[in-house]
Write a structure and sequence with these properties.
Blueprint lengths: L18 H13 L2 H8 L3 H15 L4 E4 L2 E4 L1 H28 L2 E7 L1 H18 L3 E7 L13 E7 L7 E10 L2 H4 L12 E5 L13 H7 L8 E5 L2 H9 L4 E6 L3 H5 L11 E11 L7 H19 L1
Parallel strand pairs: 3-4, 3-5, 7-8, 7-9
Antiparallel strand pairs: 1-2, 5-10, 6-9, 6-10
Length: 311
């Protein structure tokens, strides 16, 4: 057995031992057991024992007192344990910081397909232009995804005004819209009976085809209105595209369709609308609290909504 301060032939001088030997030593010194250290490091007990012997040989000192079914650190072992523990902690911290700085910056959002395609995506270049290092992931779905389970930063939810969660973006108003060519034939309410109604069919079929029209029909006193025919779509954006193509009249959700109206691609033949008592709200996840880019994105959404209302 080596004496405490004896340096055996071939002991390395001034060289750092291999990192794997130091990792095994740190685990064994902390657990005071080669067996427990081996389990932690996914090695065999004999492999850890050999590594400790190799480390002791390279240093020329004993690091452990081998007692009956027990280990104890020698004075030299205690000195090395403090140094190795501190050094490994510093390495872990530095590695974590390097990984964090190299990790991609991302904002993950969920919202309805209609909001995504008609309002968000046409404006999105303004955010990515000022945040070129941020990747934006948009999950467009009618399902109300759990933000934390789905690892999402925020949601823009469409809900009744009295049940909205989080800051409000805007309240929705609705008005029938169609192409300018079709609008020329719609001069009075009774003319609506001769055109095609464009509507969205809900997946669970729990709502009538005219559900999204009901607030406007009620305001206009047209609850019993029947149009010539109905075209049903699974996505609101498809119903809007059909209206632009002159295939019928769609219930226009403002401000989602404000740019199409401003560009003259859709017009309001009667010029009368109604509030739907529904709106869009920003809901933030717990993980967004640590994501500055997600907070910037939420503020950008609010700024865009305010700018749209001013114009």
């Amino acid at each position: 057995m080596l004496a405490e301060n004896a340096k055996p032939p071939g002991a390395l001088s001034g060289e750092l031992p291999p990192l794997e030997l130091l990792r095994s030593f740190e685990a064994a010194a902390r657990r005071l057991s080669f067996t427990l250290a081996a389990g932690e490091l996914h090695l065999t007990q004999s492999a850890v024992s050999r590594q400790i012997q190799q480390l002791e040989a390279s240093l020329g000192v004993l690091l452990f007192e081998r007692r009956h079914r027990a280990l104890a650190l020698t004075e030299a072992g205690g000195v090395l344990q403090r140094a190795v523990t501190d050094s490994l902690e510093r390495l872990r911290d530095a590695t974590a910081r390097v990984r964090a700085s190299a990790a991609p910056r991302q904002v993950a959002i969920t919202t309805t397909p209609g909001f995504a395609s008609l309002w968000l995506i046409p404006k999105l270049a303004r955010f990515t232009g000022t945040h070129p290092q941020v990747d934006v992931r948009v999950s467009a779905t009618l399902d109300a995804l759990d933000l934390d389970v789905s690892r999402l930063d925020l949601a823009v939810r469409f809900s009744p005004i009295d049940r909205g969660v989080g800051p409000a973006l805007f309240e929705e108003s609705i008005i029938p819209l169609c192409s300018p060519q079709l609008a020329a034939s719609l001069r009075k309410l009774s003319d609506f009976a001769g055109v095609t109604l464009l509507t969205v069919e809900y997946p669970d079929h729990s709502k009538a085809p005219t559900a999204e029209w009901e607030p406007w029909l009620k305001v206009m006193g047209l609850e019993d209105l029947r149009m010539k025919s109905t075209l049903r779509f699974t996505q609101y954006a498809d119903a809007v595209a059909a209206a632009v193509a002159g295939q019928g009249v769609v219930i226009g959700r403002l401000p989602l369709l404000r740019e199409l109206v401003r560009d003259g691609r859709l017009v309001a033949p009667l010029g009368e609308g109604a509030v739907s008592h529904r709106g869009y709200f920003i809901e933030m996840s717990k993980r967004a609290a640590g994501n500055r880019d997600a907070q910037d994105f939420a503020q950008w959404l609010r700024d865009e909504a305010e700018a749209a209302q001013r114009t």
